[in-house]
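Replying to the earlier thread about multi-chain prediction with a worked example.

Input:
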Amino acid sequence: MLRAKRILGVVARQVFLYRRSFSRILDLFYWPTMDILLWGFLTLYLERGTLHLPRFVSFFLGALILWHILYRSQIAVSVSFLEDIWSRNLLNLMVAPLTLTEYMLGLITVSLIKVSLAFTIMASLAGLFYGFNIFKLGVSLIPFVVNLLALGWAIGFVTIGFIFRFGQEAEILAWALAFVFLPLSAVFYPLSVLPPIIRDLAWFTPSAHVFEGMRAVIENGTIPLRHLIWATGLNLAYLSFGAWFMRRQYEYAREKGTIPKIGE
Amino acid sequence: METVLEVRNLVKDFGGHRALSGVNFVLSRREFLGIIGPNGAGKTTLLNCLLGLITPTKGEIRFFGLELEKHQVYILSRINFASNYVGLPLSLTVFENLVVYGLLYGVSEIKARAERLLKLFGLWEMRNQKTRHLSSGQMMRLCLAKALMNDPEVLLLDEPTAGLDPEIAERVRKLIKAYQREKGLAVIFTSHNLHEMEELSDRVILLNKGQILAEGPPQELCRRFGAKNLEEAFFKALDLWEAENVEG
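Result:
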C-alpha cells in the first residue's frame, strides 16, 4: 500500500537540501537563464537580420523552454538519487520501509517542483526580453508538458537503473542520457529535415511528436491530435519500461550484493 | 523469551565465493547479540541480508514470524539500522535529518520524538546546525537517534564505534546499552572490538568464513575454550577450526 507520508519523506529530504544550499539553488536557475538569454538574442538576430526567418523566435524559444522541461525533469530524478549516494545516505534510504514505487513517486514530485521553478523563470524571461508568450500554445501546452515530463522521468529511472547495475561510474549518464534524445526529438527543426532512417527512429521518440506538435500549433493554431496520441502512447511504454528497468536493476544489485558498495 | 528473528540455513554465494555458509541462529526480545569475526568473515553480508539489501542464495530470514522477502516493508518499519560507515545528508540540519526519517518510517508526532532523542543523545543544542559541522562522535550519536526514530523492536548496528576515540566510543556504548535495557529492544551488534563485545553482549556468535564457529554467552565461551577473555576464546576457536579443517 502506498503511503503519502513516506513519499513526503523523499520530497522533504530534497526540499531541505535545496533550502540550505545556495549552489544548488543557483544551479536551478543559472542554466535556464543563460540558455534563454543566449539563444533568445541569437534568434532575435536571425529573425530580424538578413535571413528574415518568420516566427523564428516563437519556434526556437518555445522549443528551448519545452526541451528544458524534458531535460530538467530527467536530471531532477537522477540527481536526487545521486544526492543520496554522494552523502553516503543511500543505505539508510534503502533500509527504510519505502517501496520502490513510493520512492519513484517522491522523485517525480521533486522533479515537478524543480521543473516548475525552471519553467517559471524561462517563461518570464522569454516574455520580458522577446515578447514571447509560451501560454499562447493554449491548452495544448498541458499535454505537451505532461508528455515531456513523462519522458524525462522515464530517462531518469533508466539512469538510476544503470547506477544500480554499474555503480557510481554510471552517474555521468545523469547529464548525458537525455541528450541522446536531442537530435531524434527534432527540437529545433522539423522532422522533415531528418534523413529517412533517422526520421523513422524519431517517429518512435515521444518528444519528436511534442516538438512537431508545438510547431504546428504556432504555425496554424491547430492541435495535431495524431502527434499527441503517438506521444502519449509511446510515453506510456517508455515510462513503464523505465520503472521496470529500475526495479529489475535494483533486484539485480540485491542479488549481486552491490547496493552497499555503491558510492564506495 | 519471545523470538523476534529466526535465521535458518542462510547461504549467500557471490559467484564462486561462499560468503555465508548455512548460518542458523535466533534472536530473542531484549537480547543483545554480538557478532564477531575477522575481516571477510561475513558479518556485514549477514547484516545486509537481514536488512534486505542482499538477497540470500538459500535459507530463510523471519522477523516476528514473518518471512523477510515477502513482508520486507512491514518488517523494515519495525526494525532499524545504524553504521559508522553510513552517513546522513550533510547539508541538512540535525533536526531536519530526523524529520526526514520520521516521515520515511511513518512516525507519528515526529517533532516530539526527534526532540526527545536529540536530548537523550546530547545533540539538542546542535539541532539547527548543519550535519556537516558534527564531529564523528556526534555524527554517530545522530545516526543512532535516526535508528531509534521509529522506536524499533530490533536494532542492527554495524561497527557503531569503529573509528571513534576511546572516550567517545565508551559514551556511545553506554547510550546504546542504557537505551536497550530501558526499552527492551533486541540488538544485533558487529564489532572488531572484543572487549566491547564482552561488555555489551548477552550472547556472542563467532563467525569465520561465513560459518558460525561457536555461539553462547561470553562467559560460557571463555569457559568452553579455557580462555581468560573473549579475545582469547575467539583465537582459540579460530585455531581449533583451522586445525580441524586442515586435518579434514
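The beta strands of chain B are 3-14, 17-28, 32-36, 58-63, 66-67, 79-83, 154-158, 186-190, 203-208, 211-216.

Feel free to reuse this layout for your own posts.
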